[in-house]
Design goal:
Shape: globular
Oligomer: single chain
Number of helices: 14
CATH architecture: 3-Layer(aba) Sandwich
Radius of gyration: 18 Å
CATH class: Alpha Beta
Structural class: alpha/beta
Number of strands: 8
Low-confidence stretches: 84-99, 103-115
Order of helices and strands: HHHEHHHEHEHEHHHEHEEEHH
CATH topology: Pyrimidine Nucleoside Phosphorylase, Chain A, domain 2
Number of domains: 1
Largest sheet: 8 strands, mixed
Distance between the termini: 39 Å
CATH superfamily: Nucleoside phosphorylase/phosphoribosyltransferase catalytic domain
Length: about 325
């Protein structure tokens, strides 16, 4: 029995032993092999969603930044899945023209299609070790949740968007929730969420809170043969594209075992750098709900709109390749 099997098989009957093992992994530092072991085991146990018959994408982060932050990926999923005609917020995103591209920075210079609307299956959960999870805000916004394969398939077909509630598709993880909450710091499961979407994906953007996490997960994505771009905010330590300074990115492609990496700045895409984190900080679930609503209505602050805008720009540039 390997570590992943022990943890998953004994969460209910031996929670203290599982807690100790997860803590030891965290203190040692989870390796690429550790992550692959857990991904392989959980893939075999998850409930799958049939292929939707069109390219589907995901935008989510690992969490673990420890910052009071906006649930940006929730707003991003809503923006990416809607046509420009139905959502006309984000003046900054539509008027800022990129002066550079990921292609110039890190071998992402292939020709792209012209569409700007994507089918999004956002895989997420309520907060485990952090402050506010994506589904804490989705619940506040009263958005429809995909908690069965049938619901997810229908939402992707009809709405171009499904908020895929991770616990409904990973029953093996249900006993882990109280253990993760009792630990109080990120565990290997924070790495796993973005890698376990039950919907077959054409590509995904994954946010990581630290450079070493990006290095590890990029290797995992390359090994798994995923179309993925991983991003890290080096200015504020967020698992998002940075509006505060340099974004470090890693890119992997199906059929290419190499990891391509580079960096870019807000100015490379026509955005002004935000110097103070407080300008884009979030709060509790109610505060973050209000910010997401303002972002979609185009009434958020310029710094907040630009934060969403640069993330939408990078996701769009990557997703258009598939």
């Amino acid at each position: 029995m390997n570590t992943a099997q022990f943890v998953l098989d004994n969460a209910e009957t031996k929670p203290n032993a599982v807690k100790s093992m997860l803590t030891a992994l965290h203190e040692r530092g989870e390796t690429v092999s550790d992550i692959l072991e857990f991904v392989t085991e959980l893939e075999a146990r998850k409930i799958k969603v049939p292929h939707p018959g069109k390219p589907v994408f995901d935008v989510c982060g690992t969490g673990g930044s420890g910052k009071s932050r906006i649930n940006l990926s929730t707003a991003l999923a809503l923006k990416l899945s809607q046509s420009p005609e139905t959502l006309k917020a984000m003046d900054s995103a539509s008027t800022n023209k990129p002066r550079n591209s990921l292609g110039a920075q890190g071998n992402l210079n292939d020709e792209v299609r012209s569409e700007s609307r994507f089918c999004i299956a956002k895989h997420g959960n309520k907060a485990a070790s952090g402050r506010v999870g994506s589904f804490d805000v989705i619940e506040k916004l009263q958005l429809p949740v995909g908690d069965t394969p049938e619901k997810v398939s229908a939402q992707l077909a009809d709405k171009n968007l499904s908020f895929v509630f991770a616990p409904a598709f990973h029953p093996a993880l249900k006993p882990m929730a109280p253990i993760r909450q009792s630990i109080g710091h990120p565990t290997i499961f924070n790495y796993l969420g973005p890698l376990l979407n039950p919907v077959p994906l054409a590509g995904q953007m994954i946010g990581v809170p630290r450079l070493e996490v990006g290095d590890k997960l990029a290797e995992v994505c390359a090994h798994l043969g995923k179309n993925a771009v991983l991003v890290h905010d080096t200015a504020f330590g967020l698992d998002d594209v940075s509006i505060g300074g340099a974004t470090r990115f890693w890119m992997t492609r199906v059929g290419d075992k190499k990891v391509h990496s580079g960096a870019f700045f807000p100015e490379d895409y026509g955005f002004e750098t935000v110097k103070d984190f407080s300008e884009i900080a979030g709060g509790d679930a109610q505060t973050n709900q209000q910010i997401v609503e303002q972002l979609l209505a185009g009434t958020a602050t310029k710094a907040q709109q630009d934060f969403l805008g640069i993330n939408q720009t990078i996701a769009t540039e990557f997703f258009k390749r598939f």
